[in-house]
Write a structure and sequence with these properties.
Blueprint lengths: L1 E3 L5 E3 L30 H31 L4 E7 L1 E17 L2 E4 L6 E6 L6 E2 L4 E6 L5 E5 L4 E6 L6 E2 L7 E5 L3 E8 H4 L7 E6 L3 E14 L5 E9 L9 E17 L3 E4 L2 E8 L2 E6 L1 E6 L2 E6 L6 E3 L12 E5 L6
Parallel strand pairs: 3-24
Antiparallel strand pairs: 1-2, 3-23, 4-13, 4-17, 5-12, 6-8, 6-11, 7-10, 8-9, 10-12, 13-16, 14-15, 14-17, 15-16, 17-22, 18-19, 19-20, 21-22
Length: 335
Amino acid sequence: MPGHDGEGNLRAFLPLGAPVGHLVSMGPKPGKEWKPNADEPSSQMSRAALGLTTLTVLGCLAAPPAFAADEETAPRGAAVTVFKAAKSCFGNNVEVSGTIIAREETQVRPERMGLKVAEVLVDAGDTVTAGQTLARLTLPEGGTVIVQAPVAGLVSASTAAVGAMASGKGEALFSIIARSEFDLVGLVPTRDIAKLQINQSARIKVIGAGEIDGRVRRLSTTVEPNSQLAQVFIAVTTNRRLLVNSSGRAQIKTGQSCGISVPLTAILYGNAGTVVQVVKRQRVETRRVETGLMSQGQVEIREGIVEGDIVVARAGALLREGDPVRPVMVAAEQK
């Protein structure tokens, strides 16, 4: 903005925020020679001061673009929890629910009729050896008959009582689970039968007995027509006392598969298919994925993301393709 000083000289004043191109030369009025006063500094010092003032103004004008650049690089968008996709192995298991049964049960009776129980030496729940005396019976004409265990095992039931009658055709005096061997018998869908083989290992949870080991012993060759389920027999290996007809659940390991693992919360299911959300250059990208096995809240990703991708831990509809975000990394065990 032009103006005059007290000496009549033309001066230029620059409004704050004006472009640099608006700077003009400053000097005396046309036709008037400018001379420094005796009290003023030398002309060289004046020119130096003018140059310093000009640089200061230019510096001030250059400052706003620097602040704008800072604003452009500052993080924007919502903060989201992310993790690095990593590989993990999943057990390919077939689950079987069923009931504990005796693999082989032997009924013990006397060989002749008209006997009376004189002494009972074992009770239900006892473990016996082959040939062990179980009871003594008396004959009507006198004499004693000894009842022995035909096999070693667990006495599962006993009806023997002193004074009661016993015969070869009546109710069995004792039931023995041969060799104390049990099976878990359960039903599996026909689609899973092809995965099962004899001697595959299993981990069984039995109510009242905890977790025990087992192996596939026998597979059914037919299926139930209405339910399309087939029977599988799993041999139970344990020294623990099991109760016949108690419920159990087995996980039969048929193999394993290794791939990218993400938590179930990172997956979205919708009309567009199964997707996960990843962060790239601080923006959201949506990836369609192919899932595989699942275990303990983790899902195998067979296709769609690779190891090292930054995945949103809790995917949601509020995050859309291209949205700016501020990723907050968490460790794998915290996701």
